[in-house]
Amino acid sequence: MGDTVLVVGSGGREHTLAWKIAQSESVGQVIMAPGNAGTKNKGKIDNADVPVSDHKKLADWCKENNISLVVVGPENPLADGIADVLAANNVPCFGPSAKAAEIEASKNFAKSFMDRHQIPTAKWQSFTDAESACQHINNAPYKALVVKASGLAAGKGVIVAKDKDEACNAVKEIVQDKLFGQAGDTVVIEELLEGEEFSVLAFSDGTCLAPMPPAQDHKRLLEGDEGPNTGGMGAYCPCPQVSAETLKVIQTDILHKAIKGMKEEGRPYVGVLYAGLMLTSEGPKVLEFNCRFGDPETQVLIPLLKSDLYSTMLACTNGTLSAALPTWHDDKFAVGVVLASGGYPGAYKKGMPITGLDKIEKEMGQLVFHAGTTIKDGQVVTSGGRVLATVAMASDLPTAVAKAQEGAATVQFTDAIYRKDIAKRGCDFITKQRSVED
To answer: How confident is the model over 146-174, as a mean pLDDT?
Structure first.
């Protein structure tokens, strides 16, 4: 029969995790709560109505249904203590405790933690009133242009200002006008770092860690990194800009220090730790830590995982990660292009029929990971801002890019938008490197 796994969430990240977990020979069933059209009645995977918001009810449900592992996708339930309640009821959960999730849920905590453990990051200060924050922006001995709501703001609580006036306006919007509600009661002002931005995620069992290949997300809506910030319009992995030497530095000076520091402070970190990084002229520095898989980075990371995701996740929950280390396809690149609803990240229409999905998967041999989709009258339709991602793999990055773009062009729904320059920075780097070598 095999084990039963519950995946909490409804996005592309959760679809990707479920898709890979279902490939494990140890797993008989993957239940999605709530899931989306891509996880509805798909082999071992199906959606179910599970009481995920009431953690005690969820724990009881997990015991009644013999759930072997709960995998939590989004940050909010983790910050709210879902892992703590499950652990208290002897239900294994891949995801950190509420205390450990503070590394994302409180930017103020995260920055103080990095200072305590000598983890390289941008210079910073936190404030609870707009006037003091604006004084700091105007008088700081560094470019104090990054304004962050300290609490959780669905990945949208960071404003990178062009100048001091814009930074002060951002502070007023967050602190006085409550742009992000209570998440902005405390505001963190940071030095603007310059360089190549990317992320490195790592599995952790609280003591041991296993890093993943570096990935790069594309936050802006439009080509050339123009337009408003989004949840992410695409990603690629690995990043050729990040050398093996730099990855070693990230592992020792950032990830290892973070896991060790959390353990020392009585907040052992179990799950996946996401380090958002900037490769500066002084080496890699942390922009932010997240307490879960990134979206859309997961959609390009997990297809490159050669080994059994379920056994690695289970090992993280029982302190045996060193015996179940992940292995990766180091001869492939993965590129994911996100298709979004017209109007996103503002208001958009829902219920648009989606076509071309069968062709991508069956004829083109690519992957499609659903996010904002549902089924209406037997037809897959749009139900969110970011609708789905098409993911292609190849032995070189430019080929993977071309395939993923071909996949994105095959999906059709009214007013669909997507970027045509995903992974351009990586491709440009490879071209430049070749010309130097020639």
So the answer is: 87
